[in-house]
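Checklist before submission:
- one chain only
- standard amino acids only
- sequence pasted in full

Submission:
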Amino acid sequence: MSYQAPIAYARQEAPTRSFRSVEYDLLAQVTRRLRAAWSTRETDYPGLVRALADNQQVWSTLAADVALPGNGLPAVLRARLFYLYEFTAHHSSAVMNGKASVEVLADINTAVMRGLRGEGGAG
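Returned file contents:
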């Protein structure tokens, strides 16, 4: 028996996850953090700023991905997702300046999550 046999027959501890599943979980996590940080913004403003920055980082990464020439999403959906990235950047600034709430950011994330689950609402 080869020394590689135990590796080849070993049970995998975690199943391979799809990119959509990872994206969904990441959006769900930052959305929860946004809502939680909003509820404690009076006593933990730095927490709100961190949650907004994390959300913006997710959107920045998504925007970079949809801007790649090899991205397989339809052009219209890619453009809409890039627009949402721009909107989240602008709206996040308004939240930090006390002129808006995080609710629309959470709603956008939730709509994209529905799209990732195949329920529509992402585009």
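Reviewer check: The longest helix spans residues 45-67.
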